[in-house]
Amino acid sequence: MRTETDIAEPRYGLAKARAEEIWENQAQKKVPVILNDIVSALGANVSEADLEASGVTRMDKQGFCMILYKKGMSEVRQRFTVAHEIGHIALEHITFDGSSSQFSGKSQEKEADEFAGQLLIPAKDLRAFVKNKDKTIEDIVKRYRVSRPAAIIAIQKNRLLNKLSVN
Ligand SMILES: [Zn+2]
Q: Is residue 150 included in any domain, yes or no?
């Protein structure tokens, strides 16, 4: 079924603002971000499962959200997947008796990806971290426990390429 949200432009500003708010209030501004703290604060649960997709969120009739991620993924992929699913919950993409998988490929997927990137690599922390021009992409990967591509995207989005060390 086609809904209004399918054709709407992704709300990147909202996704970023929600990620920042959650990092500050539900994750105590920690890095690496402790995703389990956020999942608990949202009254949700997380578990691995045999899935085709990397992740999915289901809501039961009581409104309780269960985040499932695919078994056997690397830690960084698992973290990104869980952060993406938290995004679906935080951005209220999940409806009663619904599942996040119904939104695949739609603007809500882009919003959830934006949310995940911003949550795992908070812009405020990243800017402070690279300020002294002695940090490399590897330092960012280690600090935030993210993949190299995720670290590069965050650097580009925050226009910090010129701050990185080339060594
Ligand atoms: Zn999704």
A: no
Distance 18 CA to ligand 1 centre (A): 16
Query: 22 CA distance to ligand 1 centroid (A)?
Result: 18
Secondary structure class of 95 (helix, strand, coil)? coil
Domain tally, the chain: 1
* Ion ligand 1: residues, Cβ under 5 Å: 100, 109, 112
**134 CA distance to ligand 1 middle (Å):** 35
Give distance in angstroms: CA of 132 to centre of ligand 1. Answer: 36
Cβ neighbour number for residue 41 with a 10 Å cutoff: 13
Distance in angstroms (rounded) separating the CA atoms of residues 83 and 39: 9
Pairing of strands 65-70, 45-49: parallel
Are the C-beta atoms of 66 and 57 separated by less than 8 Å? yes
Q: How far is the CA of 124 from the centre of ligand 1 (A)?
A: 25
Reported as a single tens digit per residue, the pLDDT across 20-64 is 999 999 999 999 999 999 999 999 999 999 999 999 998 877 878
Residue 82 lies in a domain: yes
pLDDT score at 97? 54
Domain of 52 in residue numbering reads as 4-120
Residue 106 Cα to ligand 1 middle (Å): 9
Q: Does the residue 99 lie in any domain?
A: yes
Residue 93 lies in a domain: yes
Q: pLDDT > 70: what percent of the chain? A: 89
How do residues 74-112 score in pLDDT, each as one tens digit? 999 999 999 999 999 999 887 655 555 555 558 899 999
